[in-house]
Design a protein that fits this description.
The structure is a homodimer.
Chain A lengths: L8 H20 L4 E3 L6 H5 L29 H11 L6 E3 L4 H15 L14 E6 L3 H9 L3 E8 L2 E2 L1 H10 L3 E6 L13 H9 L8 E5 L16 H7 L6 E6 L11 E4 L2 H14 L5 H11 L2 H30 L6 E2 L8 E4 L5 H10 L2 E3 L16 E4 L6 H26 L1
Parallel strand pairs in A: 1-12, 3-4, 3-6, 6-7, 7-8
Antiparallel strand pairs in A: 2-9, 4-5, 8-9, 10-11, 11-13
């Protein structure tokens, strides 16, 4: 198929009339499809229902009665499962409750209210800026926005954030205080940060002495087609004395059950001590019985990896449907570009400029809900209006096939209008 | 026994030498006793181990799959258990994770960072003051202190905070932004707020339009000798249009298991909507599986009340030992004053002025740990140095007897020194 931009007006008009008819047919089906949020489907959850049972004991390995108060940083066996998996010493890990998002929000809030390691609280600064590699995760950006941070969009490349842009901004402007990162199978594109990107993030000179990398390794073990590993950012940071720069987050929400998983934060000794100091005011400690459930159920890194292979096997057909239909319907048209993710939870496509909003609205009208166009950019504004996030994990393969056909159809129709207007 | 202040110097000296000897004997015993924190003992926890099991279903009554994401305000059946118990409509309740302290901290933090219902954030005000009825709960005061609030000590009476003082301060100073309250069996004295106190708190004129009562009903069902009920503060507040003034907190930490309980916040519709707006940025939602465990295990108000009667039966002998030994050893001496609590988790005594710190230090030296003297006052400073908090719930009755004998002995010795110095 030749690229559509090279077609004649009459060719385009002919196609438009055919696709208009097809779209009306879709509307007649009364579909109700949802590809909007990164939720696991029931069959993924079924793999982990053993987590809901009582743990074999409520006495932690150090003798702590997990039924009672105490243990601010989480029970040791739970921290060790995380540590074993991620290669982080367990005493640099704080295990929390079910939501790692809450750990990120709280860490951000503490920088805003109290500062960190002697720095000025961000609330007392005339301007605070944060780097937001985009497309990215809307809930990250929502935290920055809630605290009045000025968000700076940084383009993504196939190796992670555009590091030339990141380095220039971080080096020259002391009000640039940090960056949001999803280093493995990024949300929504599935980008794997290269070793060199990780090294540069950890080691680049920055103007702000309280610069923080929010390293949200949400998909750190979520392999689907290939098993990638991300470089050890702590290692790179420690080597040049930048250890305090890293706030590392992970959770089992998408390993076991989002409704009852376990989140964690890891950081340098100084940062961990500081977080615990604040936490000692905020909480009496995490749900230790849940942490024992997690530790006894997952056991160790191998326990998690085995589980992730099972999850990957269930996710693979869903990702294949999305990628196959994209290729079949839009391959060679020049109407979309995308990275084929090797893991994670999402696929993102970029349409022709100025088309994403219209595509999402048109799909919605015919019964397929997608993440709102623009949501993957700071302030919900995609400057070129091209990015659409596809979340294939929740629908059944059948629903997904239907929804993808509809989506591709909408891409074609909206693109046709754009191309015709330009003729 | 005549009051010791009326004894002659030689009588006092004689007693001192006898008590010095007794104290040395205690030191020789190598005791290790802890009456410092309000922790339940293992036999109290044993009553609730069924909570640890899997709930009978992971499908909530409205069809929600509790294993998955969603439901920011908590599953309905869990909110209904709270509502049934406390007489609050379930849609005005937000059910959270295990720590109600975290809900209080977060509510306070939101007032500080964002303000409430259109008011200015407290961080942007030159001065914010908070009323702290004292003796009170050290962790409440720690939250105010963390956010740089100026804490104002308000005396406690047998009916709750001295309302004349509270009303005067709240009415005349717009920088007075709220008050900490533990209305039933207050920590540490066990005071029950009278209906009139509750009414005045709810209805008093205040200068600050964002005045907030942090109503921590931590011991709302913790009856030991008598069953008291606290007046409905929402009712009083609603009647005069002050509904938004109340933030109500409760948790099952001391109903079931502190290591895996469920906390909640209740408030006016406007406040609930505002909290949920902030929470939608901070978290993906609470641990819904834990909430289902709670709802299915406790069932309803009667389920909780039955459990509390069993807990009360286990706590009663412990409180009796403390009260009996206080009466036997110190009754009529004029060395201490205290309220006999009818429920809750603590007993507080007031020594002669300037003696509490020395008593706690002396008890510690002989092996009995008490809550640090002063901890029950803002900034950890008891202005008259008289208040000592006794937490009788964790030790066995035998340990408790020993610890109380030692405590009374230390009170006598320190008081003797004071009385002798004044002769």
């Amino acid at each position: 198929m030749s690229e559509w931009k090279n077609l004649t007006k009459s060719e385009l008009l002919e196609m438009k009339s055919a696709y208009d008819k097809k779209y009306e047919e879709f509307k007649g089906l009364g579909l109700k499809l949802d590809m909007s949020r990164g939720k696991p489907s029931p069959d993924l959850l079924d793999l982990s229902v053993g987590l809901i049972d009582a743990p074999p004991t409520w006495t932690a390995e150090d003798g702590t009665d997990a039924r009672n108060y105490g243990v601010l940083n989480g029970v040791a066996e739970c921290r060790r499962v995380f540590g074993d998996l991620l290669g982080i010493p367990e005493d640099l890990i704080i295990a929390g409750n079910n939501a790692s998002l809450e750990l990120m929000y709280n860490a951000y809030m503490r920088l805003y209210c109290f500062g960190s390691l002697g720095s000025k609280p961000w609330k007392d600064l005339p301007n605070v800026k944060f780097l937001c590699p985009s497309p990215g995760y809307d809930r990250h950006f929502a935290i920055s926005q809630a605290f009045g941070t000025e968000m700076i969009t940084v383009p993504m490349t196939a190796d992670g954030p555009d590091m030339d842009v990141v380095e220039t901004l971080a080096r020259n402007d002391a009000s640039v205080k940090g960056i949001w990162c999803v280093p493995l199978y990024s949300n929504p594109q599935g980008v794997v940060y290269s070793d060199e990107t990780v090294r540069r993030l950890a080691q680049m000179p920055v103007a702000a002495d309280d610069f923080r990398i929010f390293w949200d390794n949400a998909y750190g073990v979520h392999h689907i087609f290939e098993e990638h590993e991300i470089a050890d950012i702590f290692e790179y940071a420690k080597a040049v004395g930048n250890w305090d720069r890293i706030y590392y987050f992970f959770s089992t929400s998408k390993v076991t059950l989002p409704g009852g998983g376990t989140g964690m934060m890891a950081a340098s000794p100084a940062n961990v001590a500081e977080q615990l100091r604040h936490m000692s005011i905020q909480t009496i400690g995490p749900d230790k019985l849940d942490q024992l459930r997690m530790a006894h159920y997952l056991k160790n890194a191998e326990g998690i990896r085995t589980r992730m292979r099972m999850l990957g096997a269930l996710l693979r057909p869903k990702f294949e449907i999305v990628l196959d239909i994209l290729e079949r319907e839009l391959g060679g048209t020049g109407l979309v570009s995308y990275i084929k993710p090797k893991g994670g939870y999402f696929i993102a496509i970029d349409t022709l400029e100025g088309c994403a909003k219209a595509v999402v609205a048109m799909a919605k009208e015919a019964g397929a809900t997608l993440t709102g166009a623009g949501a993957t950019y700071p302030y919900g504004r995609d400057p070129r209006d091209t990015n659409i996030r596809i979340a294939p994990t929740y629908p059944s393969t059948e629903e997904l096939g239907k929804a993808m056909e509809l989506l591709c159809l909408c891409v074609k129709r909206v693109s046709l209008e754009k191309l015709l207007a330009e003729k």
